[in-house]
Specification:
Blueprint lengths: L1 E7 L7 H13 L6 E5 L5 H11 L3 E6 L4 H5 L5 H10 L2 E4 L7 H14 L2 E5 L12 H10 L4 E4 L8
Parallel strand pairs: 1-2, 1-5, 2-3, 3-4, 5-6
């Protein structure tokens, strides 16, 4: 069983969504049949990854950063997808944080990395912003931990 976690940009442009979905499918296809995906199922990359994991017949593990995450952080345009993916997940881990904040996101990312054999990063390659908990930070943490990282950023992909 291969366990792959995801980190990635939430703000993909509309035109990027099918490009990223196809690139994720190609990246994950070699692991189909024996695959577990670990995702925070945030809008954008995390949810696209989770959908491809399920499409390929894999198990989905959802890591929820805090007890109030769905109520306070999931925007109305993402509620249906978030609920559908948490319902489809084989395991939903809600971290013990009361509120969704930078520390909760950083802990969620560390949890993803601890559970994974490798990381898929839907990432444009830009360096960390300095705020912590972002895609670039997670890629750096994974690399420091010796976790293999597959960067997915297809030609034509852009942030919205």
């Amino acid at each position: 069983m291969t366990t792959i976690a995801v980190t990635g940009h939430m703000d993909l442009s509309d035109a990027s969504v099918p490009l990223v979905r196809d690139a994720l499918r190609e990246t994950l296809k070699p692991y189909a049949g024996d695959l577990t995906g670990v995702s925070c199922i945030a809008k954008g990359s995390d949810s696209l990854f989770a959908e491809v994991i399920l499409e390929l017949g894999g198990r989905l593990v959802a890591i929820i950063p805090s007890k109030d995450y769905r109520r306070n952080k999931v925007k109305p345009d993402h509620v249906e997808t978030f609920d559908r993916l948490t319902e489809a997940a084989d395991e939903v881990v809600v971290l013990d944080n009361e509120t969704a904040n930078r520390a909760a996101y950083e802990e969620a990312n560390r949890t993803l990395l601890r559970r994974a054999d490798r990381l898929v990063a839907v990432w444009n390659g830009e360096p960390p912003t300095g705020k912590g908990g972002g895609t670039a930070d997670t890629v750096l943490e994974a690399r420091e931990a010796g976790l293999p990282v597959d960067v997915v950023w297809p030609d034509g992909a852009a942030r919205g």
